[in-house]
Specification:
The complex is a heterodimer of chains A (about 210) and B (about 200).
Chain A: H1 2-35, E1 47-51, H2 65-78, E2 84-85, E3 89-91, E4 96-103, E5 106-113, E6 118-125, H3 127-137, H4 151-179, H5 185-207
Antiparallel strand pairs in A: 1-6, 2-4, 3-4, 4-5, 5-6
Helix pairs in contact in A: 1-3, 1-4
Chain B: H1 2-16, H2 18-32, E1 45-52, H3 61-72, E2 77-79, E3 89-96, E4 99-106, E5 110-117, H4 120-129, H5 145-173, H6 179-199
Helix pairs in contact in B: 1-5, 2-4
The chains are: A alpha+beta (about 210), B alpha+beta (about 200).
Chain lengths: ~210, ~200
Amino acid sequence: MWKRFYVVTRDLHLYVGLFLAPLVLVFAVSVFCIVHAPSGQVWEAPSNRVVTELDVSPDLERLSGREQLVALRPVLTGLGVTGEVNFIRKIAKEHRLVVPVVIPGRETTVDLNLENRTAAISVRNTGLSDALVHLHKMPGPHNVNLRGNSGYIRAWRWIADVSSYGLLFLTVSGLYLWIALRAERQIGLVLLFLGALSFLGIVYAITF
Amino acid sequence: MFTIWNRKVHYYLGLYFLFFLWLFAFTGLLLNHSWQFAEFWPNRNVSTFERAISAPRGGSDVERAEDVMRQLSIRGEIEWTATRPSSTLFEFRVNRPGHSLNISVDDAGRSKIEETQFNTWGIMKALHSFTGVRANNTRNQRDWALTTLWVLAMDAVSLGMVVMVLGGVYMWFVLPTKRKGGFAALILGTAICGFFVFALRWM
């Protein structure tokens, strides 16, 4: 029975590991992009267009939160803008709403003037590094009431969860597979101890 | 020889980085879900106190802030917050996982400190993203040695995971009986990844 359990665990570790391999690479490589982010990054020039005589209600600026977003979505779709609305910035004095809409590797900023019924749309390609960073951070703890307003982020939320749970499974199954290797137990214990010491030491120094 | 050492490196790295991997995987889940049991903001403790100190010395803002921190025995990563409301006040924030201190010092050397302390959940979530820098923010740079040490740990964990993935893929590939099932798993994962990273922006 234990032999069967070992074989099943080993196979699951293999197949889950292979399935998660590209996702783990996305999260791991994006860490380098996040912690060594160049300051003052220079983006390529955005492409701009202006749309006039927009079919948009001035009442849009009186709404807020999810309600405003739901009312805004058909306007964005009509402008050919798709993706995750990051946030909605209201410039009340000028009756404007500035809406950044993101897809991994591309950011579209829609500047809606509700008084003039115009939209200035600026599209910027942000590159592979930014795409990886965006995916690493989504959905995230910010703007929770807005987050998941696009299909791809709703899907990515599940993928991110599967990655985290899968990684936890891989660590636990990996521990079991190591314990089954008698010849590696001593050195494994030393490495486990050193790793725990490094981890706790750094966390203690930073936190307390 | 390579096959043997590749396998050893795979589980030696896994064992050494185990606690780091548990932290980042678990806190990744915490950050993506607003689970009530892991709330930290409503449970924060805020306290304010004032101290008399000498006027901050130093040529740059960072040096002056470090001088203030030395006098107040405060440690952490300096964060420059928004524009100063008054030219007579020197204001900045100091962060470290579990603590956030808003500090303001006037020209007469009166310092006012507002300290916010977070619970264990707050500490854990902060550790996930404690880098000392933000993209496209030129003003805030990493200036605490321990932040750099934590960032190096993050780098090491990421590099370790890349090595483990590549080593793991090699270990699978040399097993002829596992190739079919393995290819299916790998292609599925790659397709999902490729869709989000590359295909979305072309749709």
